Amino acid sequence: MRKMQKITGGLMVGVTTISVMLIIAIILVILVVIINGGKEYFSWEFLTAFPEDGMTKGGIFPAIYGTALLVLIMSVAAVPFGTITAIYLTEYARENSFLSRTIRFAIKTLAMVPSIIFGLFGLGFFIKFVGGGMDQAFLGGQLKWAQPNILWASLTMALLTLPVVIVSVEESLRTIPRELREASLALGATKWQTILRIILPGARSSILTGTILAISRGAGEVAPILFTGAAYYLATLPVSVSDQFMSLGYHIYIMSTQSSNVDQTLPIQFATTMVLLLLTFLLNFTAIIIRARLRRTK
Amino acid sequence: MDNKEDVIVPEETNEMASVPEEKPDKGFKFSEDSLKRKFRISEFLSKYIITGVAFLNITIIVLIFVFVFKESLPIFSSKQKENTEVYGEEGPERYGETEENQTLQQPERYTGEEEVESGPERYGIEKDTQMTAEQFTQDSILSGKGNEVEAGSDEATFKSLTGKKWYPVSDHPRYGLVPLFVGTLKITLIGILFAAPLAILAALFSAAFAPKWLREWVKPAIELLASFPSVVIGFFALMVMATFFQDVFGYDTRLNAFVGGVAMALAAIPIIFTVSEDALTSVPSTYTEASLALGASKWQTAFFVTLPSAVPGIFAAVLLGIGRIFGETMIALMATGNAAMISMNPFDSVRTLSATIGAEMAEVVFGDTHYNVLFLIGALLFIFTFTLNAIAEFYVKGKLMKRLQGK
After folding, report:
1. ipTM score assigned to the predicted complex
2. A124 and B234 in contact by Cβ < 8 A?
3. Which of B47, B84, B265, B405 is spaced 20 to 30 A from B34 at the CA atom?
């Protein structure tokens, strides 16, 4: 009886161990396969050259540039917005008030909404409603803003990455000791002064972590920019926010499903996927390390 | 501790929000007047601006719903009756929200009429698709499903939305959502069947069996999977997994629901793992200690005490995983074959709701019926995930709380 139990116990523990190992093995397999497939074609030229011959040769520089620009504009929009929301939730809102509960639920919903819905929203709100309105108001109906461009794509992406920033910043604001706030207030500082001089400096590295995580998420998402600004191929780099842009993720999607010679461009696809994967991987890794270091010092 | 409270005026410590924030500059005497909150413009502005920005988060959710739904409204404008029925199903509170924005919807209905007038565009599309009519009949024969042609009307009335055929681009476009729903459900089922057991068992390992140092490695490692962009997982499924599974199982269509479902599972594993791990670790240690003290072994405690007490949380995790798979677009676009057909075979190609939006929105004419139907699909997706999230949030959490705080 005892022995039977020991065997079943061993089996049960074994099953859970195997699940963990399987998941980690899958992660490793994806990494290895994609790096293996991509490393042949990968070179410095690949990163810095334009696509050539109908994208069957050459590099992916415009896609990298477009992605960088996208996440830059996205961060400018999402990080302040997310930080302020986090400050509200930790400093101003009463813990269980209706408003703060609703805001929390809204943020959770925002994190859950399928990314394609953000794309639809970007199309319906930013392009048709805001863009169309701007064209009507300033350009007399001339078509400029009411079409996909990098600004609308970035703002759409900012909505998607907002929860990432909020959660990350809020988590660290909560770890700032209450005594620090009380000391500041007791010395006569006002609430706003306390936030500016005590809370925000203390949360600096977590805001950085949140930004990194948001960038990693934004660089990888494709669905929201499918019809809000990403372009199949552009001969020139975007120079204004009303231009379209190329993006790494969209490039992979197009090359692997829509192009006529998928097999021929396979090395390029693998190399592009490798660049995107390593980029998000490194960003996340940095964020994890910063976070771990923060926890250790506390 | 008591000393501190003496320094700050006692009644103020109860509410952090109203600590006195001005210096008594003369005499250093706390009078009733000097303890009163002074009006400062910077404080006032900062407070209301911050609150306003925080409130915007709620507005965004409302706006997303309103704008996605608004673009699909012209479908209902011809048949107002069905419209109200749909509202009835979705619950009264959201109806109220859209009603508030009724003014926003006015211009839309106007453009809808405009689009009807701009005939030439739609005419052009019909011309293009006349050539595909032949292909379309072939398709219907191939899929072997009901060859009888429904009385095709150009209007996507409510009846045709519940039809069994999705031929948005043809002479008689039909917008039957049933095959898309079937496809999505199939993918979701396959995905969750793979993801849930794996992720929950892994969470149990991390929460109950792993020593602390290992746990600190396992958790971030699995959560790293969440950082993989879905387009990368989709690419991996398309190029590597599809070929591998075809070699193993030897089926005909290379891209099918099975490949898509397994790839979706990869996307859902991290979210199910994280949420159920949180639920498992939040089971009070008194539970496990009591079980161990009664002579149960470690694995018995884990499987018969910890796991059952965390069931509501794990249920929430699975719901969130379902939501993730349901709305996942890029993997569905790349790895499922994208053929809208109704079949129960897991090795047939499927087309999911989200993939349909992603694939067809770029080629559709603004304001066309097809365009509106795609937005309707979006609205349905939104409602679905919103509901799932609400259940996971309120029902499950409430239950978990009750259970863990001693019934």
Report:
1. 0.91
2. no
3. B47
